[in-house]
Amino acid sequence: MKNKDKLLYVSAAVLAAGSVAGVKTTNVKAAEVKQANVNANSKLDLNKQATAQDKTAQSQIKQDTATVQKTQDQVKQDQAAKTQAETAKTEAQNTLPAKQESVNTAQTKLDNAKQDLTQTQAQNKDLHAQYDTTAENAVHTAQEAEKKLDQKVNDLTGQVQDAQNKQTDLLGQRTSAESEIKTNTETLNNVNEQLNKAQADSTQAQKHFDNVQKDYAPIQNEYNAKKSNAEKAANDLKQNETDLAQSQKQLADLQTKNNDLAKTVNDTQGQLNNANKALANAKTDVNQTQAKLNDVTNQSNDVNGKLTSAIAKRDQAKSALDSQSENVQKITLTSEYIKAFNKWYNTKDPSHTDWTTSDELEKQMDKEMKSVSAAELPLNKYQYNAKDDQRKIDIRHLTNEERLEASKFGINLVNQYRTQLGQRPAILSKGSFDWGTEITKNYERDKAVTPWGHDLGALMDANDKYGIAEDNGTEAASLAYYTSFYGGFKSMNDLKQFIYESITRMAFNDYEWDHASILASFYDGNNEKDINGNVIDVYANVGIAVDTYDNEHSIKCLLDFVSDTYTDYKFNLDTGSPKYYTNQFKFDHNKFNVKDVIPTDNLDNSQAGQIYAAAQNEVNTLQGQKNSLDGQIKSLNDHLAQSQNRVNDLTKTINDLSAKLTNAKTEQGSVQGQLTQVSKHVDELKAAQPALGQARDNTAKALADYEQIHATVLNDYNNAKSQLEQANNKLQYATKAKNEAEKVLNQNKAKLANINQELAAVKAQLADLTTKLSDAKSSQTSAKANLEKAQADYDNYVNTHKDLIDSIAKSDKELADKEEAVRVAQVAYDKASQEYEAAKKEADKLANKVKDLDQSIAKSQETIKSLTNRIASNTQIIENNKQVHAQAAKLAARKAFDAQINKALDNVVYGTKTISQHTAKAATVKPAVSTKNTKHALPQTGANDKLSLFAALAGLSLSSIGLGSLVSDKKRRRN
Fold first, then answer.
1. 196 vs 187, 192, 745, CA distance in Å?
2. Which residue, 857, 837, 839, is CA-closest to 849?
3. Residues 253 and 260 sit within 8 Å (Cβ to Cβ)
4. Which of 58, 209, 600, 823 is placed for a possible disulfide with 720 were both Cys, Cβ 3.0 to 4.6 Å?
5. In a 10 Å sphere around its CB, with 0-12 CB exposed, 13-18 middle and 19+ buried, how is residue 709 labelled?
6. Cβ neighbours around 470 below 10 Å, total
7. Are 492 and 402 in contact (CB under 8 A)?
8. Total Cβ atoms within 10 A of residue 52
9. Which of the 8 DSSP states describes residue 378?
10. Contacts 24+ apart (CB under 8 A), 766-771
């Protein structure tokens, strides 16, 4: 039996159980059924609300996660900026006492210089009071008077010369004007003679024309009519020919245009069909892309939530790691450095890019790594340790305990660097310490403590001694960094500072990061596993090799790493596949002690370091997934935008093509109508052509015959008319020439009058200036005499008061020196004051900056706390709503089942379905009790509301009783 038949069988049984067997169903009321539906719908509504809440919460989580990350980065930047500002503030404040002392010194010098100047000014004033300036003033007065008169004489002389030059120029202009007037008068006389002759010729020609006109008048009207008819007939024929040519061209153009329009209609229709197909494809692409975008966005929201939790877990692990560490020396990596370093050097990172494949990528890598490394250096500074500074060392004869302490210190720093990059901590064991110490001794043995590269022999010999494969082990040698002993390594603090700076210079230099990749174990593979799936341990040592064989006494920091399991890599030349291992083997643990692990103060004997590394790995993994999903979202959004633009462009294209097609069809109809009209017009013009040609020939012959009969009269008339026109033209020209000659003559006469008037004015001016010049020269002679007398009196006074004058000159020089001293002292004081105020202002500015940064950090931390709480709250909302979604799913399934039962019941009541024979008999048998009595009726369509899920379940629970009663009822009816 099929499932549907089973459902109908059970439904029929339920119906029979309720109505035939007399099962009491009165407790299942229509109102209760309706309420059950309302409750179910209410829960479904809650599910819709929960779905909307999920969407809002996920959006808020994504936004808050990005804000938290951005705010955390801002806190790191603010903390770095605060450290720089505090250092700069201290430096600025330290300069203030010296600058204040400079101000005080400059003030004292300025006061002394002003006092000396005051005394000198008083002495100078007394000396000047003894000097009689009368004679000297008289000389100055006489010199000024002479100077003014000299200038006056020079000015008047120049004015006289100018007036004389102008008079000469005007005399020349007058002569020229008189000559032109004479010429103009002669021209006018000649023109008058020509005018008189022209008037006589015109009168004679008019008399002759009048006489000829008497003979021409009787035939004039008839002649003009024949001539007009001939011209009209010729013009009509010409116009018809012109119209015919134009119409034929228009007809050809219209035929060409009609052909072009037909092609346009066909082409446009084809383009329109193609565009409609492309639009359908583009819309399909939009829908598919949107569906995929929705799916990837949901994945991204899920990863964002996980990433937020992972970051919080990572930060908690970092705080635990930092709080348990006893070492105050820290190496801190910014998120920008971690992201960039993993991108370019971590081959296992999802965002890894191989920069060795092109010059452009190498330039991009170099630029990014330089930028992030430069930002790290201010954040990673060695902190002076007073306790270690009291512990003196002999760098050339370090004890084994001092070497071990130095190695523990260095490995601690290396592991801080590694764990922040998501790598497991390197292990310092007795074996790695002995192996590393052997390498340093071999360096000293081989005299290899130089700034030039590594001593591979030293490394290989140590490998042989401690059972390590020849090619296993890598070394970072402080970037070949070395230093002179001058200034010295005298304490443990000096040695640790050297180790700290060696490591940070490897990690954060500005030209290569291969050594940094060794520190992180990116160089030979990172967190690789052996053939059994176990993560390979990395052992390390930090050693100090000293050159004692020359005057330099150089020192080298050696960081040596070795993997417990070594992989022998090959390259498959047949398949071109990447490297694959052919063998893996551990080094000899009998020679290399891996059991005795030495703590390095970075929680090796606890799990905090590994917990942090694992948390950082999880963040890196999720960040990689997020970056990948974000890239997919961006790519999909870009593609969606392109597809939507394609839809928009195609829609516009279709609209344009439709309009173009409509316009082309409309224009084609218009052109075809014009073709009919123009073709008809061409036929009409061709038909009219013979008659017009005959009319032209007839009128032309009639005119020619008339002209031949009256040839003498017509010739005389035409000649007389031509002679009259020529005579009148000459008369008109002569009249115009006379008017022009009179105009030029009058202009030259007016010009001459103006010249004579201006010449008279210049002559009067010249006479006045000559008189003034004579008077000025006389006064000039008197002034020279007065100056000579005043100069003699002044010379006599100077000769008799020479001592006083010398004293005044000396006093004037001393006064100038004192004034210069005051100026110099004032400049020095102003400069010192400005420098002090600038330094004080800078110190105050830096103090305010530190205060602002403290507030910014506190505000950012509060924001992070608030957003973290909100992320947790939204995450909880999503978690809580999962129950609502589960309930809604169950209700939906139950509601679907309810609908199937109702449908089956409807079919049973109305007999609209063909069912199995047994079921049909059970369903359609007439009940012993009338169905009009609703006491035992099930709630169903037509009587009550449809049987709800609740009623169906109630009926099913009684199905066994109903089936038994149904059998008994069947027997009764047959009886």
1. 15, 6, 20
2. 857
3. no
4. 209
5. exposed
6. 10
7. yes
8. 11
9. G
10. 766/160, 766/163, 766/164, 766/167, 769/156, 769/159, 769/160, 769/163, 770/160
| Residue 136 tokens, joined | 């000297």
Residue 321 structure tokens: 């790691």
Cα–Cα dist 180/182, whole Å? 5
List Cα–Cα distances, 606 to 332, 533, 611, in angstroms.
21, 24, 9
Question: Helix, strand or coil for residue 596?
Answer: coil
Whether residue 500 contacts residue 478, with contact meaning beta carbons closer than 8 Å, is answered with no
Classify residue 396 by its DSSP letter.
G
CA gap 715, 212 in Å, rounded: 10
- pLDDT average per 10 residues of sequence, the chain (975 residues): 39 35 43 64 80 87 87 84 82 85 90 90 87 85 88 90 89 90 88 86 86 81 85 89 89 90 91 92 92 91 89 78 63 94 89 92 95 93 92 92 95 94 91 94 88 83 85 52 54 93 92 89 62 78 82 80 68 48 66 88 52 78 86 90 91 92 90 89 88 88 84 82 86 88 89 90 89 88 88 88 86 89 92 89 88 89 88 86 78 70 56 38 36 38 38 35 34 32
Buried b (16+ CB within 10 A) or exposed e, 94-119: eeeeebeebbeebeebbeebeeebee
Provide the CA 431 distance to its chain's centre, in angstroms.
Answer: 56
Give the chain's length.
975
What number of helices (H) and strands (E) belong to the chain?
A: 17, 5
d(CA 538, CA 519): 11
Decide: 701 and 709 in contact? Cβ < 8 Å: no
Q: How many Å apart are CA 773 and CA 763, to the nearest integer?
A: 16
Place of tokens 């020529």: 726
Cα 393–chain centre separation: 57
Q: What are phi and psi of 695, to 5 degrees?
A: -65, -40
Residue appearing with tokens 């022998």? 568
- 560 beta partners: 475, 541
β-bridge partners, 544: 557
Bridging pattern class, strands 555-563 and 577-586: unpaired
From CA 529, how far away is CA 485, in angstroms rounded?
A: 44
* Residues 592 and 466 sit within 8 Å (Cβ to Cβ): yes
Q: What is the largest CA-CA distance in the chain?
A: 180
pTM: 0.37
